[in-house]
Amino acid sequence: MGTSDVSSTTDASAGRAQIPARTLRTDRWWLPPLATFAGLAAWVAYATVRAFMQEWYFVEPYNYLTPFYSPCVSLGCVPEAAHFGRFLPDVWWLPYAALTLPFLLLFRLTCYYYRKAYYRAFWLSPPACAVAEPHRKYTGETRFPLLGQNLHRYFFYAAAIISVINTYDAILAFRTADGEFGLGLGNLILLGNVIALWAYTISCHSCRSIIGGRLNHFSKHPLRYKLWLQVSKLNGKHMQLAWLTLATLAVTDFYIMAVSAGWIPDLRIIN
């Protein structure tokens, strides 16, 4: 992604070859950053619209609550969806889940994989390996706002708490409005989303550091060493899990929206 040198990558003082071409690569090096740009931009557009739509977020008969509105703490939330109370003002510019959405956004923005993704796709810093970036200087994460990337470890704790809340919502959805056990396609989608979210959260580099960091001898901490090994395996799939959770979040939200709006019925298995 760059070095700590503030010189331009095309500057002779940086020790780079001085050629007029931006790169000598002949493959379609621009395709991955373009695909990343399109995918992230589409997801952000969808999530933004849904967060401010303030409707079709809850299926009362089956207690389905979309993760985009969890926890629903606005005075505009239907009481059945407000599992943790309603105390935020009901105004159009404030999402119903405004208590948690900023932390989720910051957790993703500071994620090590997403940093690489949007640095290349949006800031072109650099757009690909062996391709010079268009910026004159590179200062790294030493200045505002990129200095805030160092707060990722703290946003991890917030994301873990929110994952607990999403898990609670998924479990609560197995109880219908009549108080009986129920199982439908929506339950399976919610459960799959929660599993994916936990896998992505646990595979975070910060989680790996928390579990195995600051240990001089793994032999003296066998339990933490075993946990560190498992988290390290997940960490190797962090990029795939990052995209997977974007997909599961969108699918979960769209399904609940479709059922809530009456576009499709929920496929019931039990009750």
Q: How are the secondary structure elements laid out?
A:
Layout: H1 31-53, E1 58-59, E2 64-65, H2 101-109, H3 112-121, H4 152-172, E3 183-184, H5 185-202, H6 205-212, H7 222-235, H8 238-260, E4 268-270
Antiparallel strand pairs: 1-2, 3-4
Protein name: Succinate dehydrogenase membrane anchor subunit
Transmembrane segments: 29-49, 93-114, 154-175, 181-200, 241-264
Keywords: Membrane, Transmembrane, Transmembrane helix
Care to describe what's here?
It is a single chain. It is built from eight helices and four strands; from the N terminus they run αββαααβααααβ. The protein is mainly α. The protein has one domain (12-270). The chain has a two-stranded antiparallel sheet with strand order 1-2. α4 packs antiparallel against α5, α5 runs antiparallel to α8 (238-260) and α6 (205-212) runs antiparallel to α7 (222-235). The longest helix is centred in the N-terminal third of the chain and has 23 residues, at 31-53. It is globular, with a radius of gyration of 22 Å. It starts with 30 loop residues before the first helix and ends with a strand. The relative contact order is 0.14. The model is unreliable at 1-9 (pLDDT under 50).
Short structural summary:
The chain has 271 residues and is mostly helical. It is built from 8 helices and 4 strands, in the order αββαααβααααβ. The model is unreliable at 1-9 (pLDDT under 50).
Helix content: 40-55%
Strand-residue proportion: under 5%
Global shape: globular
State the helix count: 8
List how many beta strands DSSP finds: 4
Strand order of the largest sheet: 1-2
Low-confidence parts, pLDDT < 50 over ≥5 residues? 1-9
Assembly status = single chain
> How many discrete structural domains?
1
Mean pLDDT: 89
The largest sheet, given as strand count, sense and whether it forms a barrel, is: 2 strands, antiparallel
N-to-C SSE string, H for helix and E for strand: HEEHHHEHHHHE
Keywords: Membrane, Transmembrane, Transmembrane helix
Organism: Pseudonocardia aurantiaca
Protein name: Succinate dehydrogenase membrane anchor subunit
Transmembrane segments: 29-49, 93-114, 154-175, 181-200, 241-264
